[in-house]
Design a protein that fits this description.
The structure is a single chain. The protein has helices spanning 8-33, 131-138, 141-156, 162-166, and strands at 42-46, 61-65, 74-77, 87-95, 99-103, 120-128. The protein is α+β, with helices and mostly antiparallel strands. The protein has a domain at 36-135: Ribbon (Umud Fragment, subunit A), CATH 2.10.109. The protein has a six-stranded antiparallel sheet, covered by helices on one side. A hairpin with a 3-residue loop joins strand 4 and strand 5. Pfam families: Peptidase_S24. It is found in: Membrane. Its EC number is 3.4.21.89.
Length: 185
């Protein structure tokens, strides 16, 4: 048996294990980030308004996950009567059966809604300040039209041909063909 016959095995084993770790990490990330709109447990909410200041400001992105909220948690909910708008406020009382009582940190009144069941999208787990501003910009038709217009302009804009760079420079003082005589010995 040759002394180097098994030398490639550790390298192959490391490669297989590395790929397995990447696949598992991708599956876990997919499970954690799978949106609730597709049957998952994660909801991304861009804060608008001042009702949760100073905790959250307009343009902040809040990641919420499903689960049983407790008093003091920040909940994201979507009452049927708001036309699909999400509300993010703090739980101050109630329960799943009778509905949750909520109030914005910057409000001096309790919310008129008492969400329960399917109206509750989750409780806040991660806060990313100002990230929602960029996300909101990406959903703007004006931004997309500008990006498309720029891409089209780059495609149709005349380019310098590389062959032109290699050609000798011709000047306007060219008076026609020139000939040189070979000197006679």
């Amino acid at each position: 048996m040759r002394p180097d016959a098994g030398a490639g095995l550790p390298r192959r084993l490391r490669g297989v294990l590395g790929n397995a770790v990447l696949v598992v990490a991708a599956l876990v990330a997919g499970w954690l980030l799978w949106p609730s709109s597709l049957g998952g447990c994660t909801t991304l909410t861009i804060v608008s308004g001042q009702s949760m200041e100073p905790t959250y400001s307009t343009g902040d992105l809040v990641v919420s996950r499903c689960g049983e909220p407790r008093v003091g948690d920040v909940m994201v909910y979507q009452p049927g009567s708001t036309g699909g708008a999400r509300i993010i406020h703090r739980v101050i009382g109630g329960d799943e059966a009778s509905g949750w009582e909520l109030q914005g940190d910057n409000n001096d009144f309790v919310d008129p809604f008492t969400p329960r069941g399917e109206e509750v999208l989750g409780t806040a787990r991660l806060h990313l300040p100002r990230v929602g501003i960029a996300a909101a910009a990406l959903t703007s038709p004006v931004v997309w039209l500008s990006v498309i217009a720029l891409a089209v302009a780059l495609l149709v804009w005349p380019r310098r041909d590389e062959a032109d760079d290699d050609a000798p420079d011709v000047t306007a003082a060219d008076d026609g063909p020139t000939t040189t005589r070979a000197e006679e010995p």
